[in-house]
Design brief:
This protein is an alpha+beta fold. It folds into 2 domains: about 10-75, Tetracycline Repressor, domain 2 (Orthogonal Bundle), CATH 1.10.357; about 85-195, Immunoglobulin-like. Helix content is about 30%, strand content about 30%. The protein is built from 4 helices and 8 strands, in the order ααααββββββββ. A 4-stranded antiparallel beta sheet has the order 5-2-7-8, with no helix packed on it. Strand 7 (about 170-180) and strand 8 (about 185-190) form a beta hairpin. Helix 1 (about 10-35) crosses helix 2 (about 40-50). It is elongated and about 70 Å long.
Length: about 200
């Protein structure tokens, strides 16, 4: 009877190569899709330095690759928030974005907001006295941040006060907007977890 086997060095090396390929593909996809949301799998493969078939080995469909890219972005944002050490009553937000095209950078800035849903209020006076009102998507705090640098990058560490009375769902929203035209170029919304409750 033979004892337990351990992976051969060649197998470990193959796994390590596969992990590097996946990381390169996700990074290349994020870069390509930031500049062109319709970037082809061939273009992503070119940027990753692999053949297109290699992408399909790890991501059988375009949708599965897009899911992996979104998971990567959310994990990065969550890691940044976890590393921050906010003061009590504050949430620390690390926001970053890129506007690749120089033509799109004029009048553009990075914005961060804290919104609440599930708020309620009781009207005590006036013609609506006694009414109970529900409020969703209420912006509690809103901050305007930096404009793109020469490379189109924006990075911002900002603290937002946590309302002592919150609704049923609080969300941090970060977005890139052309303030003059009103056009939103990029946006990301992340719900606050229950872990934030002790900070209020």
């Amino acid at each position: 009877m033979s004892g337990p086997t351990t992976p051969a060095p060649r197998q470990r090396r193959r796994r390590s190569d596969a992990d590097r390929s996946v990381a390169a593909i996700i990074a290349a996809a994020l870069d390509a899709l930031t500049s062109d949301p319709d970037a082809s799998m061939a273009e992503i493969a070119r940027r990753a330095g692999v053949v297109r078939a290699t992408i399909y080995v790890h991501f059988p469909t375009r949708e599965s690759l897009l899911d992996a890219v979104m998971d990567h972005v959310i994990a990065d944002v969550a890691a940044g928030m976890a590393e921050a050490e906010p003061q009590r009553g504050m949430i620390a937000v690390k926001a970053s974005a890129r506007v690749p095209s120089g033509a799109d950078r004029k009048d553009v800035a990075l914005y961060v907001a804290l919104a609440d849903s599930g708020l309620a209020s009781d009207i005590k006076a006036g013609e609506n006295a006694g009414a109970h009102l529900a409020h969703d998507h209420v912006v509690r705090w809103f901050r305007a941040g930096p404009s793109p640098d020469a490379n189109g990058d924006m990075r911002w560490d900002v603290g937002l006060p946590l309302p002592t009375e919150s609704g049923s769902a609080s969300t941090i929203v970060a977005f890139v907007q052309n303030a003059k035209a009103g056009e939103v170029l990029q946006a990301l919304a992340l719900p606050l977890t229950a872990a934030c409750a002790p900070l209020r």
